[in-house]
């Protein structure tokens, strides 16, 4: 069937990624509409409009040439690092954390911007580093400094979930760049030794409670274990086919906390059932498969690391949120991309997808790797 009637500018868009994103956003809009009691306000309408704005932003990013990405890496890193410092000095406090900057026309969470930025700057660092030096200390120490500075600043906010996301994206780039596996094994062993000490000395009380609740959520079902208990009830009560659109009792009766943000998957699963959950997983799998294929076919080391690191960042978002709502990971403030309500997180993930689309465009101009 010929589609000659479709305008060429529309036909040339990367629909292989736009279509799955649109499917997730439309499902998220329906879930947020239901979570608000059948109203477009305050969640569903803004969710849809944000996606439209950020999709345009991602398409603009996808047209940026590779040289500009490489040149902007270190200035962008420095700028976001300055914003993180400003958060410590001037940031707005909400929910016991100091994470936001009030810019007047919007509230910005700089730690979100650091997630793609750390991948960009490390990809630029290893892209310029001679491959023979990757396995030496010259390939490790500068990268650890680049990664450690924002991670410490984010931990001070405190925001353990975002700090882990930054470290995860950075560690993936470092691993794919060719750092010796023994270094990662040694770092994992050191972390296992330090973790008990950090648990009792560095973590805040609420962070320790989240870990203890993860280990035994039934110990305090009406207190620290309330969130995850209600989430599992909502997911389990949906069964295979769900209770039906708009019929979720856990969210509508306010049993399920944060039903429109961190626990939106539980809201969805109660109404759309296991089939809805499988649909979400399949769409994420398709998006991640696309991102990895782009990285595999990228024309050079910088673009390979950039696409793979950003794909890993999106994976971390989705995986941790899904594990969290099912009680398989401690509760952290990480939303579900394109389904949860939230501007900063959607902006971050769309920056990731825009940059991956840019890598795909570079590959088409240079030809895939052989």
Along the chain, the helix and strand elements come as: HHHHEEEHHHHHHHHHH
Shape: globular
Per DSSP E runs of 2 or more residues, the count of β-strands stands at: 3
For the sheet with most strands, the description reads:
3 strands, antiparallel
What is the first-to-last residue Cα distance? 33 Å
Low-confidence stretches: none
Q: What is the rounded Rg?
A: 21 Å
Count the helices. How many? 14
Overall pLDDT level? 85
Number of domains: 1
- The fraction of residues in strands falls at under 5%
Biggest sheet strand line-up:
1-2-3
* Secondary-structure content class: mainly alpha
Task: Report the helical percentage.
Answer: 55-70%
List keywords for this structure.
three-stranded antiparallel sheet; mainly alpha; 3 strands; about 5% strand
Write a structural description.
This protein has one domain. It has 14 helices and three strands. Strand 2 and strand 3 form a beta hairpin. It is globular, with a radius of gyration of 21 Å.
């Amino acid at each position: 069937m010929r589609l000659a009637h479709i305008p060429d500018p529309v036909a040339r868009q990367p629909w292989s990624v736009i279509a799955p994103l649109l499917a997730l956003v439309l499902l998220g809009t329906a879930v947020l509409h239901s979570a608000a009691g059948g109203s477009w306000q305050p969640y569903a309408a803004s969710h849809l409009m944000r996606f439209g704005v950020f999709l345009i932003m991602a398409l603009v990013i996808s047209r940026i040439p590779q040289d500009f990405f490489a040149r902007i890496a270190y200035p962008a890193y420095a700028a976001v690092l300055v914003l993180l410092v400003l958060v410590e000095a001037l940031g707005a406090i909400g929910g016991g954390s100091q994470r936001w900057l009030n810019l007047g026309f919007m509230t910005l969470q700089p730690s979100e911007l650091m997630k793609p930025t750390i991948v960009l700057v490390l990809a630029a660092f290893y892209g310029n580093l001679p491959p023979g030096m990757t396995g030496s200390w010259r390939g490790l120490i500068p990268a650890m400094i680049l990664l450690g500075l924002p991670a410490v600043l984010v931990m001070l906010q405190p925001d353990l979930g975002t700090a882990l996301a930054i470290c995860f994206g950075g560690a993936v780039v470092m691993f794919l760049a060719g750092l010796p596996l023994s270094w990662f094994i040694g770092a994992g062993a050191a972390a296992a030794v330090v973790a008990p000490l950090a648990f009792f000395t560095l973590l805040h009380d609420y962070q320790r409670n989240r870990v203890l609740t993860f280990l035994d959520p039934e110990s305090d079902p009406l207190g620290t274990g309330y969130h995850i208990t209600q989430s599992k009830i909502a997911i389990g009560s949906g069964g295979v086919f769900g209770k039906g659109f708009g019929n979720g009792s856990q969210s509508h009766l306010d049993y399920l906390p944060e039903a429109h943000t961190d626990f939106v998957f539980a809201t969805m699963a109660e109404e759309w059932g296991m089939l809805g959950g499988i649909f979400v997983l399949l769409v994420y799998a398709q998006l991640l498969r696309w991102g990895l294929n782009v990285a595999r076919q990228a024309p050079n080391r910088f673009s390979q690391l950039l696409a793979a690191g950003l794909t890993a960042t999106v994976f971390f978002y989705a995986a941790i949120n899904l594990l969290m709502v099912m009680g398989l990971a401690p509760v952290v403030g990480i939303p579900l991309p394109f389904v949860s309500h939230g501007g900063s997180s959607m902006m971050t993930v769309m920056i990731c997808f825009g940059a991956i689309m840019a890598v795909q465009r570079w590959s088409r101009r240079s030809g895939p790797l052989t």
